[in-house]
Amino acid sequence: MNTVSPRPVVLCLSGHDPSGGAGLQADIEALMAQGCHAAPTVTALTVQNSIDVSDFRVLDAQWVLAQADAVIGDLTIAGAKLGMLGSVEMVDTVVQILKRLGDAPIVCDPVLRAGGGGALGKDEVGYAMRERLLPIATVATPNLPEARILAELPEGTPDQCAEKLLPFCRHLLITGGHGEEDQVHNRLYSRDGSVATFTCDRLPGSYHGSGCTLASTLAGRLALGEDIRTAVENALGYTWRTLRDADRPGAGQYFPRRLPVDFCG
């Protein structure tokens, strides 16, 4: 008889990346590595690879609602991770879904650009996420370029972006790594005024799916019951290790190695 306790289930609302470097596959692998179970609801389909994204299509809202309804009606949801939504209508659809999750922690990764620079939604999608999703999320995880879009500060520093965005969200993790500094600074801002800075060594190369990996790992750590600061620290540490061990299966960016080679035996 199977007596193993069920793993925490994290509902993932994001896009599908056919290269497997980012999107829902990144969510699934990262959550597996945390000891969680990913329940992936597809919000959009993309045409992309390790080099860049060339096109995307947002799914019909009713299809997304049906996917989420089937899961929520059957599984106990311990957390949620939001990734690529692609349209203002999809933002509204996801808001409907999240209202059914009670007090489960929600991690919002405002995906607006692919790692190669291609757009995965217009800036108005980011503004809709800021106005409608950030207020119900536990934490948002933009990188600095995304934070600047959300804050409407094209040259803003992390502190300036946080000042603009904290009225919308409880916690804000702005990730670094987009400059040339030897040390990457990731900053966790909270509405109570506290700021925690986490530093790590900058790794060479460019990576596809690092933001998805971080956000889904953070959702998993919160679903496991960790407090926000501990969850952020553990998620950043795990993500850094996946980048340290990354490989390059194509002609473009490196893919994080989210599962160990001997994971299954």
UniProtKB/TrEMBL annotation:
Record-linked CDD domains: HMPP_kinase
EC category name: transferase
Membrane spanning stretches: none
GO cellular component: cytosol
Entry EC no(s): 2.7.1.49
A single GO BP: thiamine biosynthetic process
Domain of life: Bacteria
Keywords: Kinase, Transferase
Pathway field: Cofactor biosynthesis; thiamine diphosphate biosynthesis
Ranges in coiled-coil conformation: none
InterPro entries assigned: HMP/HMP-P_kinase_dom, PM/HMP-P_kinase-1, Ribokinase-like
Keyword Transferase: yes
Ranges of residues in domain Pyridoxamine kinase/Phosphomethylpyrimidine kinase: 17-253
Official protein name in the record: hydroxymethylpyrimidine kinase
